[in-house]
Design a protein that fits this description.
- The protein has 280 residues and is an alpha+beta fold.
- The protein is built from seven helices and ten strands.
- Helix 1 runs antiparallel to helix 2 and helix 6 crosses helix 7.
């Protein structure tokens, strides 16, 4: 019974000594979290008003949010009575342990900083890197969010992107257009080249200063391959690419130019039932 009274007295003493501080610290914690939320909204509005680079906004907002919350935790801990020197030592030891455990995450953080400083790509660019491709939607502290042409969301670690070669399809304002068309060996090469050139010129989106080049790329097994090369504004590339084959096929059909398919001649011999197979 005496021990129980001693424990109760100790609890009462602790409540008297620290109850007010803990209650005040909790109030400060909740108010602080509310203020941080408000500050984040103000900062976001300020970024939008200043028309800041969309690539920087989510990254800076994440950094500011993390810094404010760390400052709040330190403030609350000091109100409870935790010694700052001890608290800093604990944070340092915890930081070392967490750092060793999260080496990959730290690599992603460093990669995110490098991406934002060096700017190999920005929000809205179509890129290929780390085995993925898509349009950059957001760049965060640890990850970059891509949207694929089929509408899928791909989350790529920044560390992988910063350490891999990146192909940025949106970086240059113009892009070279290459496409190959096969015609039959009995067809007129000059006629086919003239028809392809007229289609490209009628499209109106090929850049005149770079010109349009047509040449026989290969004498293939079943066809004579004619290659078209020209330059387009980056925004026009896929629309032209997706429609050009159809235009050429219809034009060839209307003008008697054939598009051959692979063929194979099979010869039968009576003696020994031998079969000879030849490609044309």
């Amino acid at each position: 019974m005496d021990n129980l009274e001693k424990y109760w007295d100790s609890v009462v003493a602790l409540v008297i000594a620290y109850g007010g501080k803990i209650l005040l610290a909790l109030i400060v914690l909740f108010i602080g979290l509310w203020l941080i939320k408000r500050i984040n909204k103000i900062i976001s509005h300020s970024f939008d008003k200043r028309e800041m680079d969309p690539s920087l906004k989510p990254f800076l907002k994440s950094i500011i949010d993390a810094a404010l919350k760390i400052l709040l935790v330190i403030t609350v801990a000091s109100m409870v009575g935790v010694e700052m020197t001890s608290f800093v030592a604990i944070l340092g030891a915890a930081g070392l342990a967490v750092g060793l455990a999260l080496q990959g995450s730290l690599s992603n953080f460093a990669g995110g900083v490098l991406i934002l400083i060096l700017k190999p790509f920005k929000v809205g660019d179509f890129i290929e890197g780390a085995g993925q491709s898509g349009t950059v939607r957001e760049i965060h502290i640890f990850y970059t969010y891509l949207t694929t042409p089929s509408g899928q969301e791909v989350i790529v670690p920044n560390g992988d992107l910063s350490n891999d070669s990146i192909k940025n399809y949106s970086f240059n304002p113009t892009r070279r257009f290459d496409m190959t068309f096969g015609i039959g060996y009995n067809d007129d090469i000059d006629k086919a080249k003239d028809l392809i050139r007229k289609i490209a010129e009628a499209d109106g989106r090929f850049l005149e200063e770079q010109g349009i080049t047509l040449f026989v790329e290969e004498l293939a097994d079943s066809s004579v391959n004619i290659h078209l090369r020209g330059w387009l504004n980056n925004g026009d590339f896929w629309d032209v690419y997706n429609n050009f084959n159809e235009k050429v096929k219809k034009t060839f059909d209307a003008n008697g130019v054939s598009i051959p398919f692979p063929q194979r001649d099979v010869h039968f011999f009576n003696e020994g039932n031998a079969i000879e197979v030849k490609n044309p």
